[in-house]
Write a structure and sequence with these properties.
The structure is a homodimer of 500-residue chains.
Chain A: E1 4-8, H1 13-25, E2 33-37, H2 41-57, E3 63-67, H3 70-74, E4 79-82, H4 88-101, H5 125-141, E5 146-149, H6 154-164, E6 168-171, H7 180-195, H8 200-204, H9 208-217, E7 223-230, E8 233-241, E9 244-245, H10 247-256, H11 258-268, H12 279-288, E10 291-292, H13 308-315, H14 324-346, H15 352-355, H16 365-374, E11 380-385, E12 388-393, E13 395-399, E14 412-420, E15 423-426, H17 434-457, H18 460-468, H19 476-487, H20 493-498
Parallel strand pairs in A: 1-2, 1-4, 2-3, 4-5, 5-6
Antiparallel strand pairs in A: 7-8, 8-9, 8-10, 11-12, 13-14, 14-15
Chain lengths: 500, 500
């Protein structure tokens, strides 16, 4: 019998189905016991229908259980994976609307180093509460289980569970994979310098020609990268090619190629998330000395986020995923994807394994389970990447405890780890560079602490403290007004008590 | 031969004369060699005239030297005490004016947890530079000397010298003595509870009746206090009476007596600095769980400082020393005091020891020198206090290095110390309470780091980063405008280069 793997909020069907695919494809996890838990009947039916059809069609010897009872699901689990988002994403849009009516553009949740539209910190009361409840269930019913937190805010939730409970916890985010962008920069530069070839337009449009050329020119073994920081504020602190500092390639790219790249990119980009080398990323590199990786690009200060026009200047035509445009596109995509999966799951005229063939997700989570459960040590995993199979380092979020010596011990850091049957162990140690510490880590940690205080301890003043330092605050009455507007939403009755 | 004691910026005549009085009165320091250094001829003449008249009249066997040559003064020194403020206090008022013209009320230097009008951080370029130069002189010419920093910003300057140089450094501030206010609270409560006596009006006006009663009711040995924090953000973390937590007396005072106290105080207060128990102090206690001590009351967030009316609500009729009113009063007092000292120093018709009789200053600095130089261990010193002589604990600012375990090692903390010939040693260890850590220490340390980065490393962006999170910033142009306005002041030619 294999591990008991529990999905909380399993109705996040796209994500769950991608991880299920990884499990189905892993020879050593095919005898797992899968528990799908969600409070929404329709969504639970959708994901369990999907899972059971695969199992049946592909003759996988796996039990699939569906339940609305969280404790039952968690009981005796080896792994608990949660993507649960209580009250749904539109609830947060209501709070954003209420905020904007009182002068807080993009909502009171959007502040320095966290402008990500669905990274709910200060207004995440129900979310923080649910994760504490899940963790308490794990303490009671599966004390040895690993709890993988996939829901944002990964930084705050992982820190909270790590501090407040005895649960084995790791926060999961694939943002760190954004480091591939500097390898593309390297390819663009080497193609030009060595072969007089301009692949910038291919790379700016993410065409196969870029990646093919990249793999012809670069042996990925010659590239060494290391990222340091917190979830969504993680930076490329090491970038070497053939043993030498390779940031010089980025410097030359900025000088000679960036304008061309951006002009093609502005003309063709098809996704608000297509930001790895956008003007904001490069400006942050110039300002803080290191390239921001993955979703970190979406952070920064109000310099990049003042209004839609500012966002479009720094993040391209959609203003990034966190502008009013990008946010609407995100919602539209979520809806379309669920619709699409539902169509296939319930269309019994075609085998599900044909309409949605299993393919690796690129997520790290199944490697973690395989390593922990089956005792296979790993510090990297194979993913499809740059038009081929490559090994990527395993990065997860765990409590710092000295990994980055100039950050507090009890904050979750996103770090390269080695995983084996005894647990998850950070590999890279050291310090976060001075400028990042001062201008990124300190403000971000401050906000994380304030969000935790607000959601765990409550009291109206914890909201006031959040807003009295907000650049959008024009007067004291505005603070009271926006707090009232948010707490008076019908959904926020309980939350209003917490903050009274 | 006794120690060589050097005053840099000795022309801060009132302060220097008070410390000289302590030296003259200390039997074991009467053979000191005094060096007075200032770049201003008039001020140097003033303080050296004063010092030499005392020495002559009182037949003190002390050499008094006056010089404009800093290196000469420092050479072979045992103690270097600096109150130097390059360009004078009116220079900073010009920057405040330029800021206010661009919408930054009280100047860009005034931000969360530092609203003190003469605590110059972000715009202290010349000040930070001078202190580095003094420290380099000490490294070169008096490597074993102790450097006592009396000039604000004590937090930033002490941290800077501690980090960047090899000099023995301590930051000196008497703000911690503000803890007496809770002893007055204790007296008001005990007088009422035990003897049915109302001494609130006496205490609100700081009349002798209050202190006489206090000493009748309370044996000061029964009171134990401890403060924790950084300079100007230090909090009463322990307050015990007869071995029991005494914060309950403050709670009852707030419930039953505060209104009466405030009403008398508002009617009679004669000083903008009379703030130990003002409404802001009590509101901070309610918000953060501990009473702010000394100048810490002047901190807080914009909640207390939004405009003059807000300041007057929280700090009384003058709006505290940092309002436009209080600031003008401060300048007036500085001018009057210098004028007064000059009158006496140059009036040879009366012995100076009669017109300005020597009396102890209440400052800790001479105790430090006596302990360090003469090997007399001490963790407290005698001061006139509450209408009598009491022993107060010695608090100074030194690099943390684990004293407060949840603060970074390389930030200067204000802490109780024991002093002996081997150095200055922190006594009280432990952690800063959670809420203070989150809402006070993190934001204050962030600003300290930003000020150090700006003044040590420069670059226009270090000013931009300061302002992009400022609640007074209304648009991006305003940031550029205020930076330009400040850097275009004729005095700021060099500073403008540093920040270009």
């Amino acid at each position: 019998m294999g591990p008991k793997i529990v999905f909380i909020g399993a109705g996040s069907a796209r994500w769950t189905s991608r991880i299920l695919a990884d499990i189905f494809l892993n020879e050593d996890l095919r005898d797992s016991e899968i528990w799908l838990m969600d409070i929404d009947d329709y969504r639970l039916n959708l994901i369990s229908t999907l899972a059971r059809r695969y199992v049946k069609e592909l003759k996988i010897p796996m039990e699939v259980h569906a339940t609305k009872d969280r404790a039952e699901a968690i009981k005796g689990a080896d792994f608990v994976i949660s993507t649960a988002l209580p009250k749904g994403y539109m609830y947060y849009e209501k709070m954003r609307d209420a905020s904007e009516e009182h002068g807080y553009y993009r909502g009171i949740n959007s502040v320095e180093w966290n402008y990500v539209g669905d990274y709910h910190t200060i207004w995440g009361y129900y979310l923080f509460k649910l994760y504490m409840e899940i963790a308490r269930d794990i303490e009671d019913f599966a004390p040895d289980a690993w709890f993988f937190i996939v829901s944002n805010p990964v930084l705050e939730l992982t820190t909270m569970i790590g501090r407040e409970t005895k649960v084995n916890v790791a926060g999961i985010c694939h943002g760190f994979l954004g480091y591939r962008s500097v390898i593309e920069v390297l390819a663009m530069r080497l193609a030009k310098e060595k072969f007089g070839k301009n692949i910038i337009p291919h790379c700016a449009t993410h065409r196969a020609e870029c990646y093919d050329e990249l793999r012809r020119i670069i042996n990925l073994e010659d590239v060494e990268v290391e990222m340091k920081g917190l979830n969504h504020v993680i930076w490329l602190t090491k970038f070497e090619y053939k043993g030498e500092d390779a940031y010089k390639y980025l410097d030359n790219w900025i000088k000679e190629d960036a304008e061309e790249y951006w002009s093609v990119w502005r003309e063709h980009t098809m996704s608000p998330w297509d930001l790895d080398l956008c003007p904001a990323a490069i400006d942050m590199y110039k300002t803080y000395g290191y390239l921001p990786i993955g979703d970190s690009v979406r952070g920064g200060t109000w310099k990049y986020h003042w209004d839609l026009r500012t966002k479009q200047y720094w993040y391209g035509p959609y203003g990034g995923p966190d502008s009013e445009i990008g946010c609407a596109i995100r919602i539209l995509q979520v809806r379309r994807r669920i619709e699409e999966i539902a169509r296939m799951a319930f269309d019994r005229s075609r085998p599900i394994s044909q309409s949605m063939p299993l393919k690796p997700s690129g997520e790290v989570i199944v490697t973690l389970m395989d390593s922990l459960y089956n005792g296979k040590p790993a510090d990297s995993y194979e993913i499809s990447f740059l038009s081929g199979q490559v090994r990527a380092p395993i990065y997860v979020n765990i409590l710092n405890n000295g990994t980055i010596s100039n950050l507090p011990d009890d904050i979750a850091v996103e770090t390269h780890v080695r995983v084996d049957s005894s647990g998850i162990h950070p590999i890279s140690r050291g310090t976060i560079p001075d400028k990042l510490y001062k201008y990124v880590m300190l403000p971000r940690i401050t906000r994380a602490e304030w969000a935790l205080e607000a959601n765990l301890r409550g009291g109206r003043d914890t909201l006031f403290q959040w807003l009295i330092v907000d650049v959008r605050t024009r007067n004291m009455k505005q603070i009271d007004d926006v707090i009232n507007a948010i707490l008076e939403l019908p959904e926020n009755k309980e939350m209003a008590k917490h903050f009274s």
